[in-house]
TrEMBL record:
<protein>
    <submittedName>
        <fullName>DUF4241 domain-containing protein</fullName>
    </submittedName>
</protein>
<dbReference type="InterPro" id="IPR025335">
    <property type="entry name" value="DUF4241"/>
</dbReference>
<dbReference type="Pfam" id="PF14025">
    <property type="entry name" value="DUF4241"/>
</dbReference>
<feature type="region of interest" description="Disordered">
    <location>
        <begin position="121"/>
        <end position="143"/>
    </location>
</feature>
Amino acid sequence: MVVEVGYAQAWDLEACAPWRPMSAEEAGERDAAGLPYVVVYREPGRKAPLEVRLVSWRDHYVGLWVYDAQGRRTHDLDMRLLDDPSRLLRRYSVGWYYTGPEMAEFDKACPRITVDLFPDGRGRRTEEWQGQGGGSRTTSPELRDDERWMDRPAFGQWPLLSAQVHGLNEPPAFEAAEVAEAAEPGDAGTPATCWRPPRPAQPGPINELFRPGARVTDGYHPEMTVVEPRRVGTLRVPGGLLAVCDPDSDRGDRPRITVPVPPGEYVLDEARVRFSYQCEWRKAEVTSTQATAVRLLVSETPAATWEMALGPADDPRLFIEQQIAGFDTDGATGCFADAGSWNPLTALFERGLIQGEPDLDGYEDIDDDSMFMQRTWDEASGGELMSFATTGDGTYPVWVGRSEAGEVAGVVVLVEGMPELLPRQDGAPTDAAV
């Protein structure tokens, strides 16, 4: 079997076609420089490609998309280049098993298998299916080392990795595809429909959640208006290291998420939105105000950028598309605390809330209808802890805002999802910081 091999600067997902085709020599130069490019494998006469390889060494990433004769993606393999430059981790894969030629690509009813692997040997295999008796099943994949890792081929020496999927028993003969047009230099102007390397979750309009008058939507309420942030109190962080964690489940000598801040006492407030909705049981329109985020305000200087705080075990090279890192909670609770006083502060939290000790020194319940619920303080160090409610269990990202000079301006936790920013009433774009 003859397989044509072509190169391009990007892959247009909407058109299912290469964007800015280039010669093998130009692709080799991009490969050596770590710049993104794609490799397209086609069988002559077949409209859809056999597979598309997506490469960006600067992002530690190689992806593989496999297509069937109907042009539907059937396999998605995400590989990562880590500390050993000679091999790749098969980090994440999804297989879609269409039940017939008429089933649409990524149809929700399509059975699929997802495999999530990590370099320390951990992993998870999830089977999902719909219809009668539908559901999911998660197991630990039993894989050999050579099934988790792949030797990294040199440029131009990659095999057709999807050969088995396409039922090829013999290695194909590769031929260079004709370059239809000359490639233009540079990465600027790449269409939004083109592939890009996976990115972790992005911060969204966090500044606007604390800017009265901004309009947002959570997808359920079509329009919500930001009102004045509500100041709840202050927090003392004498040790200069802020902890943002679940005070009940994140125990140990060091909390998982910490943020260095100058030693001091900082304002705690919560972002709020107001919205109206039709209440069925009242049979009338009602207006409600609810919190969207909690914040430790380090500086009055507005945040110019926001970044996701990482724990010591979080490796950005392993993050898949829209992945989050943060603190885990199974009690719908988080906290801001002085990390240097973490053990005595969380011990007081447990004694006051969990064990219910009466008249406990160093502990108080906060009863002012805010998201903040309990406060503890350590007399020896002066450090404090303030717990807050989230809207459920799971993982909550911790967003760190920095000024133009790179200094910490604030630390924010969204108690629910990230709202979407709406245009101003006059239709002009909102003056949003990232």
